[in-house]
Write a sequence for this structure.
């Protein structure tokens, strides 16, 4: 079955549920060995999933943000690393279409490449600048030379590096204050990957360093000069909280099944009947309901809004990420409290979920930046309503 042959969200969610079961079976070995989930990514490519956010005019399904977060969440129920990895690719294709910020022929070319199985991700973070959301000037530089640009530098946290075909790299243009994004094909001379990813969380994302040594690309591969003076609303980044909500749901499912089956001889029946266990189950369900309500409603609001309205959604988008990610951490913690010391066994998936959801604190936007933004919005609203 192929995602592109299914015309309903429900049908595509059912297909993803089936794929996700396979991801879950492979997740432990990927985590323990610190390898990349090549088979999972192949499954997503072979079933047409990686083309779903391509605009209809270029042969894609042009799915909504609401559908994207639902599908990403379901991937994460099987394997969080796979979900976060492919989420960047899916979201970037969606974002480029919505923002219409690239030269159209080059975006069309990229979509055609994706239709043929290519994968893309941004490479923006550097050792000294940290997260690009903090505003640091990249040390990667771009120099005009001959028929194009020569780019040199190192990028960290290049998620899905083992299988990427294209990188979107930000670089400082020499002898200017400008920063630009460049499209760099993997096959370009001077491009290499240094395997540096040694995180204890989301070990399967393959977020290695991208090395660029005198990489030459054509002039037209300078795809945009981002507006650095103000923040832009990026609805596609909701794939991040969707990933962590999916992991939390997997933890909840495991804890409930465990509680139904675990029957120590100190009690009659299983622990699922104990009031303290049911209290934790209720708390998990409440947090999941709250997370779903916020994530889904904001995604639907994005889908139904025009560009000017979307720009006003930056605080709401940040609030979703902060709320859902922190709720996911709490849900996994509650699941581990139900299961007890067994949750710390290396064979138990809860210890992997615990490590993986913590990674969400370090994905953009950061909690402190979101809280500061919400404070500013609150103060402005108060002043306007006096």
């Amino acid at each position: 079955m192929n995602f592109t042959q299914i015309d309903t969200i429900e049908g595509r969610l059912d297909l993803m549920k089936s794929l996700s079961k396979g991801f879950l079976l492979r997740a432990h070995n990927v985590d323990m060995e610190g390898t990349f989930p090549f088979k999972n990514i192949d499954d997503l490519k072979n079933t047409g999933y990686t083309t779903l956010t391509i605009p209809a005019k270029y042969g894609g399904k042009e799915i909504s943000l609401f559908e994207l977060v639902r599908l990403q969440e379901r991937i994460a129920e099987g394997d969080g690393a796979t979900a976060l990895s492919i989420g960047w690719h899916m979201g970037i294709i969606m974002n480029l279409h919505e923002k219409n910020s690239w030269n159209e022929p080059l975006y069309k070319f990229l979509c055609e490449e994706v239709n043929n199985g290519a994968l893309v991700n941004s490479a923006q973070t550097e050792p000294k600048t940290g997260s690009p959301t903090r505003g640091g000037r990249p040390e990667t530089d771009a120099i005009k030379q001959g028929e194009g640009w020569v780019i040199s530098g190192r990028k960290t946290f290049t998620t899905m590096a083992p299988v990427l075909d294209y990188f979107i790299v930000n670089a400082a243009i020499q002898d200017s204050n400008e920063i630009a994004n460049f499209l760099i094909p993997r096959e370009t001379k001077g491009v290499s990957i240094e395997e540096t990813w040694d995180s204890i969380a989301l070990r399967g994302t393959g977020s290695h360093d991208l090395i660029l040594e005198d990489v030459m690309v054509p002039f037209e591969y300078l795809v945009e000069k981002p507006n650095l003076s103000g923040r832009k609303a990026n609805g596609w980044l909701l794939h991040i909280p969707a990933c962590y909500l999916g992991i939390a749901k997997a933890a909840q499912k495991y804890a409930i099944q465990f509680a139904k089956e675990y029957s120590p001889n100190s009690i009659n029946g299983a622990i699922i009947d104990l009031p303290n266990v049911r209290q934790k189950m209720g708390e998990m369900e409440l947090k999941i309901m709250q997370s779903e309500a916020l994530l889904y409603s904001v995604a639907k609001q994005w889908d139904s809004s025009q560009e000017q309205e979307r720009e006003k959604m930056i605080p709401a988008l940040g609030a979703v990420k902060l709320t859902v990610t922190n709720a996911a951490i709490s849900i996994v913690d509650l699941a581990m409290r139900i299961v007890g010391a067994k949750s710390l066994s290396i064979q138990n998936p809860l210890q992997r979920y615990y490590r993986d959801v913590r990674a969400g604190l370090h994905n953009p936007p950061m909690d402190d930046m979101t809280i500061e933004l919400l404070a500013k919005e609150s103060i402005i609203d108060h002043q306007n309503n006096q």
Observations:
- Residues 235-384 form a domain with the Butyryl-CoA Dehydrogenase, subunit A; domain 3 fold (CATH 1.20.140.10).
- The chain has a mean pLDDT of 96.
- The chain has three domains: 3-118, 122-224, 235-384.
- The CA atoms of residues 41 and 82 lie 7 Å apart.
